[in-house]
Design a protein that fits this description.
This protein is an alpha/beta fold and about 200 residues long. Helix content is about 35%, strand content about 30%. It is elongated. Mean pLDDT is about 85; it is low at about 1-15.
Length: about 200
């Protein structure tokens, strides 16, 4: 009995100690526009949520259900969001969609990503991100809203074989692939070169 309790306790501690930091993500499509515009890019962090999980631990010859509370180390928090923003900056500059990163918003293309809420569903390591994108240049302003789910389009077997690091990367990939086309389209308006014409 004591051995079983020790095993369960150690298993819970290992689960709580797990971390899965987001790795940089890249835009999966080709750039449709290039510019020399400087851009001031910033982010805001909103609610970061996680939920309880349950798992089976083999102890003393039997499988024992173990419930654990939200694990902050696995949530899509401020550090992961910062990695995402650095990825966005790197892709926009590397693909020549913008000319440079500005330290001052004055006379620059303004790009603000607001992470309104992120959620972590640990049973299948799914991540849901609700975010907004605010674009501005002089009197021109646009806002877009995104809601991405990391597991969208995955089969059941793929879901149950996805770990937290992979779940975060999937969510971030979906988000950057939705954000960059809107930035390109806005730059097209600024330069009077609609990206719809570039796709034709």
């Amino acid at each position: 009995m004591l051995f079983r309790l020790v095993t369960i306790t150690l298993s819970i501690l290992l689960l709580l100690g797990c971390t899965a930091p987001l790795v940089p993500v890249k835009y999966s499509q080709e750039a449709l526009i290039t510019s020399s515009l400087p851009a001031y890019i910033e982010m805001n962090t909103g609610k970061v949520k996680g939920y309880s999980s349950s798992t089976l631990v083999y102890a003393g010859g039997v499988f024992v259900p173990v419930n654990s509370g939200p694990n902050p180390n696995l949530q899509f928090g401020h550090e992961d969001q910062s990695v995402f923003i650095e990825s966005l900056k790197s892709e926009l500059v590397g693909l020549d969609i913008i000319g440079s990163l500005a330290e001052d918003p004055e006379n620059s293309l303004g790009i603000t990503v607001n992470f309104v809420q992120t959620e972590h569903f640990p049973n299948m390591q799914e991540y849901k991100i609700i975010a907004t994108l605010l674009l501005s240049f002089g009197p021109l302003v646009q806002e877009h809203v995104y809601e991405v789910l990391s597991s969208e389009g995955d089969s059941f077997w793929k879901k149950i074989n996805t770990n937290a690091a992979q779940g975060k990367e999937k969510a971030a990939q979906k988000l950057i692939d939705q954000i960059i086309p809107h930035i390109e389209a806005f730059i097209g308006v600024v330069l009077d070169t609609p990206t719809n014409d570039l796709r034709a």
